[in-house]
Design a protein that fits this description.
about 70 residues; alpha+beta; three-stranded antiparallel sheet; 1 helix; flat
Length: about 70
């Protein structure tokens, strides 16, 4: 099963070269397994926080971000 996750992560990485905009949700949890989004080089992308949400007993803290590719 871990090989499947690794391949999904590679798909994200390969698709970045075709994107001009990324809408990303960051969730404040520590996962031992799963798919991570690839590193985003902030020299090539403009980053803006859209919303920050404090967690509670029902859901973890998370934030919404938009990245736009710089020209």
């Amino acid at each position: 099963a871990s090989d499947v996750y690794k391949r999904q992560g590679e798909i994200y990485k390969l698709s970045l070269s075709f994107c001009s905009r990324i809408e990303l949700t960051l969730v404040d949890v520590d996962l031992k397994n799963g798919v991570s989004f690839p590193f985003i080089d902030e020299k090539k992308w403009e980053k803006k926080m859209v919303q920050n949400v404090e967690g509670n007993e029902s859901y973890p803290s998370h934030s919404f971000w938009v990245y736009k590719r710089k020209d």
